[in-house]
């Protein structure tokens, strides 16, 4: 990357001028895995509290629109109140009114560590997901670009990052869908690992092992367009401002943040649907046999229900914490990945130089 103190992007070996862009020095798959893992771990620690808040807000919306009620008497008058699954509402904190309100109430009433609920499955989820995602994306993008780039301008077709991003996200989401399901349940309310294990056993008992992939469809509906939009925006910004150079760290950070914000805004309704569907699926293990035989609710059903209950605003529940989470997450991930790519390209070039000097 062209930054202060960085090694030069071109070197001379004998009569040969070496550049980092030479295909011989491309980052190898195992190097891409190493580059992506660092960002995955760092992002998970920073972003998990915002993810918890986003899911709590969406779970609260689902509970308040469930139409389940009971009568409560406080000694002065009777109230008809909604049942919130697994809790008595009058022993809970008051409903969340926004992102900061949720952060404060969760930390005050459940302890500060509750903001990192589901961190273990998040880490277990993030590392393989990120490795599969970034490695698949970069390998596919470079190969498609080799075949379809403009030979005169050497420009990458705009559809290449879109196709590569969508394909990479499909592969990653399918691989880690069971852990995503468990993480969503753990973040929707405070659960022990024993409770989470009971959820897994219940799903397998009711639906077989295919039940662990329940909710994959809305996840793909959310993540595939997100990835396509994100990479098209990022690669466009990169090629527009740095067409022939390695992008500096600060630029990849800002471009990643801007691209992630746009993609997150467009796909938030699918994120709300995903949360509702996965919470509905996992809650079935506590219901009686008649409830378990209810027909499967489609993605379209949840869109209609959420829109009917809350309109467009309902489809964008949790938008603020999602944007607050996604923008820095995308920025951290892509900038650390670009930095890692640049490091390994220089390393590969220096190794080639060292071997040639030794043979001379």
Strand content: 5-15%
Structural class: mainly alpha
Which oligomeric state applies?
single chain
Residue runs with pLDDT of under 50 for 5 or more positions: 1-8, 69-82, 86-91
Terminus-to-terminus distance: 29 Å
Spell out the helices and strands N to C.
EEHEEHHHHHHHHH
Side by side, the strands of the main sheet go 1-2
- What is the overall number of helices? 10
Overall geometry:
elongated
Mean pLDDT: 76
* Largest sheet composition: 2 strands, antiparallel
List how many beta strands DSSP finds: 4
Estimate percent helicity: 55-70%
How big is the Rg? 24 Å
Describe this protein's structure.
It is a single chain. The protein is mainly alpha-helical and 360 residues long. A two-stranded antiparallel sheet has the order 1-2.
Question: Summary?
Answer:
The protein has helices at residues 29-64, 99-110, 119-148, 159-188, 193-207, 216-241, 249-283, 289-292, 299-315, 319-359; strands at 10-13, 16-19, 69-73, 78-82. It is mainly alpha-helical and 360 residues long.
């Amino acid at each position: 990357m062209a930054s202060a103190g960085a090694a030069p992007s071109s070197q001379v070996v004998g009569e040969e001028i070496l550049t980092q862009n030479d295909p011989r020095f491309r980052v190898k798959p195992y190097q891409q895995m190493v580059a992506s893992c660092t960002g995955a771990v760092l992002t998970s620690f920073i972003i998990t509290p915002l993810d918890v808040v986003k899911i709590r807000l969406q779970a609260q919306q689902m509970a308040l629109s469930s139409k389940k009620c009971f009568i409560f008497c406080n000694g002065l008058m009777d109230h008809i109140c909604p049942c919130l699954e697994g809790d008595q509402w009058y022993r809970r904190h008051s409903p969340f009114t926004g992102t900061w309100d949720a952060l404060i109430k969760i930390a005050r009433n459940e302890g500060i560590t509750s903001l990192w609920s589901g961190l273990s499955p998040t880490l277990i989820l993030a590392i393989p997901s990120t490795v599969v995602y970034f490695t698949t994306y970069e390998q596919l993008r470079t190969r498609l670009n080799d075949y379809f780039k403009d030979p005169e301008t050497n420009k990458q077709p705009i559809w290449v990052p879109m196709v590569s991003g969508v394909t990479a996200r499909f592969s990653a989401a399918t691989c880690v869908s069971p852990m995503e399901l468990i993480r969503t349940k753990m973040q929707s309310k405070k659960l022990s690992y024993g409770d989470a294990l009971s959820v897994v056993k219940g799903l397998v008992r009711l639906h077989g092992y295919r039940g662990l992939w329940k909710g994959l469809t809305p996840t793909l509906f959310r993540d595939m367009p997100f990835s396509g939009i994100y990479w098209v925006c990022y690669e466009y910004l990169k090629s527009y401002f740095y067409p022939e150079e390695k992008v500096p760290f600060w630029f990849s950070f800002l471009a990643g943040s801007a691209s992630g914000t746009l993609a997150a805004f467009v796909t938030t309704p699918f994120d709300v649907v995903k949360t509702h569907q996965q919470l509905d699926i996992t809650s079935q293990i506590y219901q009686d046999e008649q409830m378990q035989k209810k027909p499967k609710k489609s993605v379209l059903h949840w869109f209609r229900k959420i829109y009917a209950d809350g309109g467009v605003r309902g489809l964008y529940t949790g938008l603020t914490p999602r944007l607050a989470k996604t923008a820095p997450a995308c920025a951290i991930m892509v900038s650390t990945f670009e930095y890692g790519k640049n490091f390994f390209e220089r390393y590969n070039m220096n190794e080639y130089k060292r071997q040639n000097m030794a043979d001379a």
